[in-house]
Design a protein that fits this description.
133 residues, mainly alpha, 69% helix, globular
Length: 133
C-alpha cells in the first residue's frame, strides 16, 4: 500500500514536469485554438467582469443574472463559445511559458485600464465594468 502511494506521487510529479516543457520559447496555437493575442483581450474582459461581480457582491446586489449576462457578452464580443474557451484554456495551461506571456500582457492591460480609470474619476473610486447592452 505504501509503495502504491509513492508510485501515485511519482506519476503526478512526472505529469507535472512533462507539462512544463523546457525550451519552449514560442509555441503557436494550432488551428481551431483561440490565438494568444485574442486570449489577452478575452482574459482581460473575464477579469473585469469578475471584478464587477465581486463589487456587486460586496454591495449585497444579486450577481447570478449579471454574471450570466457578463460572460455571455464576452463570448459574443469575441465570437467564441464555452467549448472553444475550454479548449483554449486546456492548450495554454499545457504550455506554461506561453500562458505566462499571455498573462503578462493581461496584467499590463488591466494596469493600463486601472490607471486611465483612476485619472477619469476624481474621487478615485473603484472602476466599473459595464458591458454595452
Amino acid at each position: 500500500m505504501q509503495s502504491f502511494r509513492h508510485l501515485k506521487y511519482l506519476i503526478l510529479a512526472s505529469a507535472f514536469l512533462l507539462s512544463c516543457k523546457g525550451g519552449e520559447d514560442y509555441v503557436e496555437a494550432p488551428e481551431g485554438i483561440i490565438p494568444s493575442d485574442s486570449m489577452v483581450g478575452i482574459l482581460v474582459d473575464f477579469h473585469l467582469a469578475e471584478g464587477a461581480l465581486l463589487d456587486m457582491q460586496q454591495r449585497n446586489r444579486p450577481t447570478a443574472q449579471a454574471g450570466v449576462a457578463y460572460f455571455q457578452w464576452i463570448f459574443e464580443k469575441h465570437h467564441i463559445n464555452r467549448k472553444r474557451m475550454s479548449e483554449a484554456m486546456e492548450f495554454y495551461s499545457s504550455h506554461p511559458r506561453l500562458y505566462s506571456k499571455i498573462y503578462d500582457q493581461v496584467l499590463a492591460e488591466l494596469s493600463r485600464i486601472q490607471g486611465e480609470s483612476m485619472q477619469q474619476q476624481p474621487d478615485h473610486s473603484r472602476p466599473r465594468f459595464k458591458p454595452p447592452h
